[in-house]
Hints:
Elements: H1 11-18, H2 27-30, H3 38-44, H4 47-59, H5 65-81, E1 86-91, E2 99-104, E3 106-108, E4 114-116, H6 120-124, E5 125-126, H7 138-142, E6 146-150, E7 157-159, E8 162-171, H8 180-198, E9 208-222, H9 223-227, H10 230-235, H11 260-275, E10 280-285, E11 291-296, E12 299-300, H12 301-321, E13 324-327, E14 341-349, H13 362-381, H14 383-390, E15 411-412, H15 415-426, H16 430-439, H17 448-453, E16 464-466, E17 471-473, H18 482-509, H19 514-528, H20 541-549, H21 558-561, H22 568-576, H23 582-636, H24 639-678, H25 683-694, H26 696-711, H27 722-725
Parallel strand pairs: 1-8, 15-16
Antiparallel strand pairs: 1-2, 3-4, 5-6, 6-8, 7-8, 9-11, 9-12, 9-13, 9-14, 10-11, 14-17, 16-17
The structure holds adenosine-5'-diphosphate and magnesium ion (MG).
Amino acid sequence: MSNLRFKAVDEASSRKAMEVPVPDVKTSDYFGKYVFDRKNMRKYLSKETLKLVLNAIDRGEPLQREVANHVAAGMRMWAMEMGATHYTHWFHPLTDGTAEKHDAFVDFDGNGGVIEEFSGKLLAQQEPDASSFPSGGIRNTFEARGYTAWDPSSPAFIVNDTLCIPTIFISYTGEALDYKTPLLKSINAVDKAATEVCKLFDPNVKKVFSYLGWEQEYFLVDEALYSARPDLVLTERTLMGHDSAKNQQLEDHYFGSIPTRVAAFMRDLEYECYKLSIPVKTRHNEVAPNQFEVAPIYEECNLAVDHNLLLMSVMKIVARRHCFRVLLHEKPFKGINGSGKHNNWSLGTDTGVNLLGPGKNAKQNLQFITFISNILMAVYKNNALLKASISSATNAHRLGANEAPPAIISVFMGTQISALLDNLAKSKGLKDIELQEKTGTRLSLSHIPEILVDNTDRNRTSPFAFTGNRFEFRAVGSSANCASAMLALNTAVAGQLKEFKKEVDTLISKGKTKDEAIFLTIQKNIKESQNIRFDGNGYSDEWKAEAAKRGLDCETKVPVILDAYLSKESVKLFTSTDVLSEKELHARNEVKWEQYTKKIQIEARVLGDLAMNHIIPVATRYQGLLLDNVSKIFALYDKEKAKKLAAQNLSIIEDIAEHMNFIKLKVDEMVEVRKVANKIENEREKALTYCEKIAPYFDLIRYHIDKLELTIDNEMWTLPKYRELLFIR
Ligand code: ADP
Ligand code: MG
């Protein structure tokens, strides 16, 4: 980095990081080295124990304490051989990220010495003193303590010296205090509902899995420059900073080669991921400068969520090794693309069929269309809820801006599948479709595979797009826990599939054949969910108007969007599928509103501080220099000449004064509004006040700070600028 003002981590020190040895063994030799996976289980558990654990993993059967003791013993032996001295229950509280509390294996042996201990009890359950995790009042109300309980379906792993055991986190009275508990329940709900529907087509199906393949976008920033930006350090985004003259307008980053320093980071990251069984597969530059993406091979949803959370924490550690900081915030820089986390989602059977992929014949395609149309219906009925599931203070910067999914949920199906669905909606019955197949009319059920092969129209503006064999939920934020979106989607689809099955059964009981009943119900769903389908430009103003006319949820304020969790329909959906109780839904919303408030509150404080103790002092100093210069001119020259000579600086002095006055005025106002807001007790009302009354000050204040940045002597400006932060070589 060539600027004179800040010493970015230079080539020499980053070269050291670049020298991280590339392992000279095959990936498959160390893949999963730090995971207590099936291979290790076979080695460290008895045959009998292994069988019972695999039953618990594959079929959700409960594990007896005795078995847990055996598993714990095997796990400890393996972990100690790998150098672990501690263990922790690893869980996902309602904040984004993970939580852990480490305990050593070591214990007194009762004879004056110590031994390593790890019982089934410690494996199965713990009571972290978690009173400071957000719980929306559940714990306060019931004076209960939260405890963590082992999730055998996600394997334990080792990070540094610690054995990490994936767990759920629930209150003593059984309410979920985390993301994993309802995620597991939603996976179960969609499994049950989808299996019932599959049985209409194939009685051999016993289980349906939900799959997730995430695409994680992120920014890298040089560590030294990051440290000189208190806003990045405290809020993960820049609250000020004028556009760099060059940013992404040349569109040269996406196709550019990966900078050497970054490539070294990626290699190291992949190495760490493989040791933890995270199957990362794709790496590339993203649209914005310094923006990159990593994506794995898709996995079963619960495991994929755990792997994404683990990846996010591994990324942070590896980045520091390379003198970088990784920014997972959805919008670290104004004016250039933000980061998302596309959630590629699909359903597949234990018989190996992808339910969202077309089949080989008309019968298989009827099943494919059954699932597609039910998903359309689920997204249609729950579009407000799905939006709530991805909404947060940080993702709000991204949604609705001209680069990312709009703040309205719609589904892109592509012209061909859309035409097929329209065709089905118009058909007079199954016979009509069979006729089309015989006559070879296009867009009949037997033509789907061909259609999809040449279906290349990808729509980048859709928040929820069909991409040939899966749906891609693109509105998810880069810093989010995928579980939030996945549990809402799984639950919505589970609820819809249950309804579908009921309707089909009713028609059959009224004398329709099975195929007729399926066809009629599909047809009804396609017609009813028509309004959710949109293949056009999701960023356009016309779409906003059109979506409102179609009755889709167009709310843009996060605290109000979150209301969707508590609508009559959502409560019915979550309770009827046994994913979340009404009490849990209320408690979780309290947490979400509180989180929203806190995020905006912190930003407001940081912005106020920086404005008053970074920006105004620098502006004053520079103004003082100019004033000096002007008074010297007036001392040397006669008044008329001096006026001419000093004209330029006099006008800058006044400009600076105006900007400073405005900044001071608005910061003071913002502080006053905040004082009032902080007295509000109702969490929703408080969040809404922060959204409507406080957040709008950010851009007002920033505008004047950014103007000052353009005016003030470059050498005096205390904060690294966008052009310095954004171009890693
Ligand atoms: P893109 O073209 O959108 O960048 P990629 O080929 O990078 O897509 O894949 C994105 C993600 O989708 C990967 O994690 C991939 O494993 C995942 N994916 C592929 N097929 C499926 C599927 N059937 N279900 C879920 N995820 C899938
Ligand atoms: Mg994608």
